[in-house]
Design brief:
Helices cover 82% and strands 0% of the residues. By secondary structure, it is mainly α. The protein has two domains: 1-243, no CATH class; 245-525, no CATH class. The radius of gyration is 23 Å and the shape is globular. The two termini are 26 Å apart. The relative contact order is 0.12.
Length: 525
């Protein structure tokens, strides 16, 4: 366990977290592949996905998605001044968070039938609602592991120990897969119940036990404590995240909620498409944001404005240089991607075609995810949780009518398009707020580089899509092999087109990309 608790610099940390997220997303795709193979995109999978609406909302209500972000700056400050006070503050936060999540989870468990009706208004069959309530009661207890475990993860991030946080999602997905397969083997008549049990097992192991053990290797002085002066500062930081309804945190829940109005299978197809879209987002955007945050927080705390702007600009540029070309290529190959991953067993060719359309729409927002991950952490590094939440709440409020209208008009594609519009508004509000408060030094020149990169990638993606389709047509009798050949050929075409175009029309961008990559290897921050 001591080997898992080694500290890392920002460059290796970003690579480590990216690798962990990539493997986790890959395991998530395996999990979804197993589910789609056995259950397709129908009512049972809709109920399984809808069962996460309430637990995820509880997590969000307690600022679970941002818990480490709010806790790290305060922990860093207390431990830098006095280690004893740092442990006292940590203990108080841990106790209150544990009590709060126990209370909310217990209340939701008893009110599961009512919450099931509210979370999926499009599922109006009484039998479906009863099964959704049952699934909800199986999934809910995982929240008891997530929030206390997030305290240990925040401690590890503060110590710049990223290995266990990178491994935690792997254990979580592994638990879901193993329990799901075990139930399919032993109790096939019980449908997706085993995957629901796996959520709790995976959460217990990956989100609580592993971080707890890793935190203990570096010293863990946890004691029962309910009072500390720092709790007020923590509440002031976390309260906006609890009360504000950020479009980013609610994105998946809104897809499930409004997806239930799009007909049977819509929730599942939206979920499958989002899982694939989140692979580049997780590997590039979330990893860059998570790895850069402790360093940004330290630079902000020390008052190093120039160093902060350089580090933030480097994180933004690095993630965009990777995610924009990757997203463009993935849009060109949505069809073969879905066919390769999902189109077997109970998942039909028609379902694959409609899911590919949803994926293409969602991938348009992937670069926006990268921007908001870094800009949001820039605000949090300055202990400003109000500005991002105001931006996210405004975007969510403006998006809700779009979700309802576009879903009614276009079905599931309209739901996906509404999500892209909401995220666009959120990033726009974030950038405006950052410029007004901190100036544009950290963002200078990024817009021109993004436009140039998009102009270079678009024709390459078009050529890759057309060339890959030609290759796939050569193997009509073996659709899986044909889809794989399409992906390989299109990727080769995309790279062979992009590299000479970039060297010819954007040599400065190529040079900057190489310098950025070298800087990630050589610099501590």
């Amino acid at each position: 366990m001591r080997a898992l608790a080694r500290a890392q610099r920002m460059g290796p940390a970003a690579v480590l977290l990216a690798a962990g997220v990539f493997v986790s997303r890959f395991m998530g795709l395996i999990r979804d592949k197993i589910i789609s193979y056995h259950f397709g995109a129908g009512l049972e999978t809709d109920l399984y996905n809808a069962a996460f609406v309430v637990p995820d909302f509880i997590n969000y209500l307690l600022a679970g998605g941002y818990f480490s972000i709010t806790l790290i700056p305060l922990l860093t400050g207390f431990f830098q001044r006095d280690e004893k006070e740092g442990w006292a503050f940590f203990s108080a936060v841990f106790c209150w968070v544990s009590l709060a999540v126990l209370a909310l989870t217990g209340l939701a468990w008893f009110q599961a039938p009512l919450l099931a009706r509210l979370s999926a208004p499009g599922l109006d069959d009484p039998a479906a609602q009863a099964r959704l309530a049952y699934f909800l009661r199986l999934v809910l207890p995982a929240q008891i592991c997530f929030m206390p475990g997030a305290c240990f993860s925040a401690l590890l991030y503060m110590r710049r120990q990223f290995i266990v946080p990178a491994l935690a999602p792997l254990a979580y997905n592994g638990g879901i897969i193993l329990l799901g397969l075990l139930f399919l083997r032993l109790f096939p008549q019980r449908g997706m119940e085993g995957f629901c049990w796996g959520v709790f097992v995976g959460a217990a192991l990956g989100s609580f036990v592993l971080p707890w053990l890793a935190a203990g290797t570096g010293g863990l002085n946890l004691a029962p404590r309910l009072f500390h002066p720092g709790l007020k500062a923590f509440l002031l930081l976390a309260l906006p995240l609890m009360l504000g309804q950020s479009i980013v945190a609610l994105d998946e829940q809104l897809l499930r909620f409004f997806g239930s109005l799009g007909g049977e299978g819509a929730i599942s197809k939206l979920n499958y498409a989002r899982r694939i879209m989140m692979v580049p987002v997780g590997v590039v955007a979330q990893a860059a944001g998570a790895a850069s945050y402790p360093f940004l927080a330290a630079l902000a705390a020390s008052g190093d404005k120039v160093g902060f702007e350089q580090a933030m600009r480097r994180a933004l540029l690095t993630s965009l240089l990777v995610i924009i070309p990757l997203s463009c290529w993935m849009i060109a190959v949505c069809g073969p991607t879905i066919r390769l991953i999902f189109q077997q067993g109970m998942f039909s060719a028609q379902a694959a075609e409609s899911t590919a359309l949803l994926l293409a729409v969602m991938l348009c927002a992937a670069p926006l995810w990268a921007v908001q991950q870094v800009i949001g952490r820039g605000f949090y590094s300055h202990r400003d949780t109000v500005s991002p939440v105001l931006a996210g709440t405004a975007a969510a409020a403006l998006s809700l009518p779009l979700y309802w209208l576009l879903t009614r008009i276009c079905g599931a594609p309209g739901t996906a398009l509404a999500g892209v519009c909401g995220l666009t508004l959120y990033v726009f509000f974030l950038l405006r707020g950052w410029g007004r408060r901190f100036g544009g030094a950290a963002l200078r020149g990024l817009g021109r580089r993004v436009a140039l990169l998009l102009a270079l990638c678009a024709p390459c993606a078009l050529a890759a899509g057309l060339g890959g389709a030609r290759v796939e047509a050569l193997c009509p009798a073996r659709p899986i092999m044909a889809a794989l050949l399409n992906l390989g050929a299109s990727l080769a075409i995309f790279i062979l087109c992009l590299l000479p175009l970039a060297r010819l029309f954007a040599p400065s961008l190529c040079k900057e990309a190489l310098e950025t990559l070298r800087g990630l290897r050589k610099k501590h921050i």
